[in-house]
Amino acid sequence: MNSNFSHITVLLDEAVEGLAVRADGCYIDGTFGRGGHSRLILQTLGAEGRLLGFDKDPLAIATGNALAADDGRFVVVQRSFAELAEEAAVRGIDGKISGILLDLGVSSPQLDDAERGFSFLNDGPLDMRMDPDRGVSAAQFIATASEEEIARVFKEYGEERFAKRMARAVVQRRSEQAFERTADLAQVLTVANPAWEKGKNPATRAFQGLRIYINNELGDLERGLDAALESLEVGGRLVVISFHSLEDRIVKQFMRKHAKGEADKLPRDLPIIPKAFEPRLKLIGKPVFASEAELKANPRSRSAVMRIAEKVR
Ligand SMILES: C[S@@+](CC[C@H](N)C(=O)[O-])C[C@H]1O[C@@H](n2cnc3c(N)ncnc32)[C@H](O)[C@@H]1O
């Protein structure tokens, strides 16, 4: 693993503004990465403020620990943000968090370092785990899963139209020789994909599907959103940046559901709506996208969409 790759933070000012940082507040950065958002939050916090960072990735944690050594207001833990409620409870800050930021997906260092095995462009070991010490690698999954399961992962998480065909090609090839390298898998997927999209590597969708599956990204997001709602104080902000439609759909539906409440489940003529049916979130503004200037400086920001909500109950 190489620690020399850097990450350009997406929607940096917009996300920290969205958190409406209070000088004495207690904040969570659920996706520390290389700490771009965290550093700006710390600049905005006062001496009484606190920031707790999460990341699954050992190199992100190393960067976080270096920052924590310099700044006593900050700590970082190697844990999924899906478990942020448990971590907050241990620290006695559950229900007291003033703002939570999730900047989803993978960081540029993870994609750029071929040794992490995320890239179909740079050949590396077929791994794809954000935390390489936990769970099953992409190579292990591809070696053992059924053809149907591989097709489901390509289709459900990669939105790959030709998932079945591509899974069949993978299973056929693995019976002769196991997949160990990203370029080898990308090559087989490329040949099996009958309809190349303009400007897109034919293995892109299948690789995205694998990555999301291997890291349980959508499951973690669903758990993380529920945990965030429970852990925030009333008036606290939830800011989420998504990079593809599957993530954004989950975030949008979650925020809308809790901003609407459940009064429509009650008889229409009920004079008073019980508290348990009232909204728990208020939507703040419209979805935010990267500005022209940011798009020019960082093409990765093209697919970013940020949503903000505030806890009202
Ligand atoms: C887009 S990057 C965040 C970049 C960061 N905001 C910055 O400015 O440097 C996403 C990071 O979140 C981490 N990550 C993704 N899902 C996670 C999860 N469920 N729990 C903890 N960390 C996660 C990844 O390892 C990666 O480092």
Automatic annotation (TrEMBL):
- Which species is this UniProt entry from? Pseudomonas marincola
Using the record, list the residue span of the signal peptide; answer none if the entry has no such feature: none
Q: Does the keyword Methyltransferase apply?
A: yes
User: Does S-adenosyl-L-methionine appear among the keywords?
Assistant: yes
What keywords are assigned to this protein?
Cytoplasm, Methyltransferase, rRNA processing, S-adenosyl-L-methionine, Transferase
Tell me any Pfam family this protein matches.
Methyltransf_5
Q: Name one GO biological process term.
A: rRNA base methylation
For the protein in the UniProt heading, the enzyme class is: transferase
Q: Where in the cell is it found?
A: Cytoplasm
What is the designated name of this protein?
Ribosomal RNA small subunit methyltransferase H
- What is this protein for, i.e. what is its function? Specifically methylates the N4 position of cytidine in position 1402 (C1402) of 16S rRNA.
Query: What Gene Ontology cellular component terms go with this record?
Result: cytoplasm
Which EC number applies?
2.1.1.199
One GO MF term? rRNA (cytosine-N4-)-methyltransferase activity
Q: Where does S-adenosyl-L-methionine bind?
A: 35-37, 55, 81, 103, 110
Please report which protein family the annotation says this sequence is part of: Belongs to the methyltransferase superfamily. RsmH family.
